[in-house]
TrEMBL record:
Sections of the chain in a coiled coil: none
Pfam families linked to this entry: IGFL
Organism: Myotis myotis
One MF annotation (Gene Ontology) recorded for this entry: signaling receptor binding
Cross-referenced InterPro entries: IGFL
Family: Belongs to the IGFL family.
Localisation: Secreted
Gene Ontology CC annotation, any one: extracellular space
Major location (coarse): secreted
Protein name in the entry: IGF like family member 1
Signal peptide: 1-24
Domain of life: Eukaryota
Amino acid sequence: MTPRCYILAVWAALCIISLLCSQGAPVSPTGAHLMLCQSHSRCGDRFYDPQQHCCYDDAVVPLSTSRKCGNCTFRICFEQCCPRSFRAQETFVVKVRGQACSFGPFPGDRVCSSVR
């Protein structure tokens, strides 16, 4: 290499180093950005933050989502609607999610009548 090439190589290296150093220290994302250290769950082929969403029928839904269960409303991320009888005057029971509908009554269960 000629001296002119050395000067050009040193100048290019200094430019690259100054560009890299001028950006400052790396900053961690905040707010709604995905943090790699947070726990995330899967719902089908999608990831979600369990502190903000839940998986319901293979869909990611906000924790505040609710549905009707007879004349009651239940929060689908925390409760489930269970049919209690199959007569003309059908009734339902809202139970804690994960608790089998076939279990007998538990404290906190809500009995709901059908809406006609």
